[in-house]
């Protein structure tokens, strides 16, 4: 089956801020990376990485189940519906609150290991004139969205 996919060796996945898949931030990015891995076009990107798992844990979906459904070749709309049917039921308010918490997550509020990793990663990989205010800025600056 043909799996629609970006070529992440030449394109970027969607921003972690994107909520176009089932209303959750991170989901569209996780989907783009999963499809690319399945098509061997992921480049440096990984599917099932810690960022993906933060979202999957919140919605209560196992990575293997997500990957299996994505491998069916489902389009964005079908993946969104599958997530809504298989996720822990959350109120709209809970989803909005979680999305905003993720979008606003400061590096100083992350685990010590991740803070240490980013302390070296940011100056080595991002332009010196860009200011990282929140975690998702790292992705969006590196991928030239901001």
TrEMBL record:
Pfam family of the protein (one): DUF5069
The DUF5069 domain, residue ranges: 11-145
The name this protein goes by in its record: DUF5069 domain-containing protein
Record organism: Luteolibacter algae
